Amino acid sequence: MNLNLKNPIVFFDLETTGVNINTDRIVEICYLKVYPNGNEESKTMRINPEMHIPESSSAIHGIYDKDVENCPTFKEVAKDIAKDIEGCDLAGFNSNRFDIPVLAEEFLRADVDIDMMKRKFIDVQVIYHKLEQRTLSAAYKFYCKKDLDDAHTAEADTKATYEVLKAQLDMYPEDLKNDMAFLADYSSFNRNVDFAGRIVYDNNDVEVFNFGKYKGASVKEVLQRDPGYYGWILNGDFTLNTKNVLTKIRLRESGMIK
Questions:
Q1: Predicted confidence band at 212 (pLDDT cuts at 50, 70, 90)?
Q2: pLDDT score, position 118
Q3: Cα–Cα distance, 65 to 55 (Å, whole number)
Q4: Strand partners, 26
Q5: Given pLDDT bands bounded at 50, 70 and 90, which one contains residue 236?
Q6: What is the rounded distance in angstroms from the CA atom of residue 116 to the CA atom of residue 134?
Q7: Given this model, what pLDDT does residue 166 score?
Q8: Positive or negative CA dihedral for 225, 241, 55, 92?
Q9: Do the Cβ atoms of 28 and 44 come closer than 8 Å?
Q10: Model pTM?
Q11: Which among 245, 235, 253, 254 has a CA at the least distance from the CA of 198?
Q12: CA 182, CA 210: separation in Å to the nearest integer?
């Protein structure tokens, strides 16, 4: 089944220095851009993370310090990547929990102003886990009836994710709609306000904290009765995106922005 697209959609995968969305960096990015008319464009690039790639990570994706020492930094290619994904919905495998937050952090570090929250996010892993619960390699075998060669390379994983989503639409016509808004909603466990899911919308569309001692409490009310909590988060081990979102809420509630 071909995708029913209103906007182009970019399937992407990241290989990184680790799994900490706050501090780890991209070492490889691959994205496959699919247009509403069915045309496809793909790009893969290695990135110098400006930090040591731990051996434990290299053992998974096969990328070592020497492989990226002469590659551009993310800051050097950030504007080109932002241009490529401008106006596109985004899709990946475990992308809502990892790839989207990591990419957002990299854009913020590079001072590239791109509002990713305007996009629809389709996480093929979430769809898969809700319906079958397996890994990408198993998903590829199950849905596409093929073995996934070169697993944990960004290019192979990206192409496999694209094929899996199309096969999911073929296999579950009663459960899934070929509509990116539907798939984005289906892909989400929480309605995140920030990419890391530290702040989410509750059933009444109120922004609430999703962690710690104030989990489930209104962000607005917490900032009013415990203003020091804002400073604790700003100085804590949270993503730049989370801090920016919280700051915007604080400024909005103080009447400084609308």
A1: very high
A2: 83
A3: 9
A4: 16
A5: very high
A6: 28
A7: 97
A8: positive
A9: yes
A10: 0.77
A11: 245
A12: 24
**Contact, 124 vs 161, CB < 8 A?**
yes
Residue with tokens 């290299």: 58
Q: Which amino acid is at 47?
A: I
CA separation for the pair 82, 29 (Å, rounded): 13
- Residues ≥6 apart with Cβ < 8 Å to 26: 14, 15, 16, 47, 49, 74, 102, 103, 106
Per-residue tokens: 91: 């899709």
Q: Which tokens in the block code for residue 157?
A: 């994983």
* Residue 215 confidence (pLDDT): 96
CA R_g for the chain: 19
Which tokens hold the place of 143? 């849905």
Two structure tokens written together for 63: 């990328």
Q: How far apart are CA 7 and CA 89, in angstroms?
A: 7
Residue 133 has pLDDT above 70, yes or no: no
Residue with tokens 């920016």: 244
* One-letter amino acid of 204: N
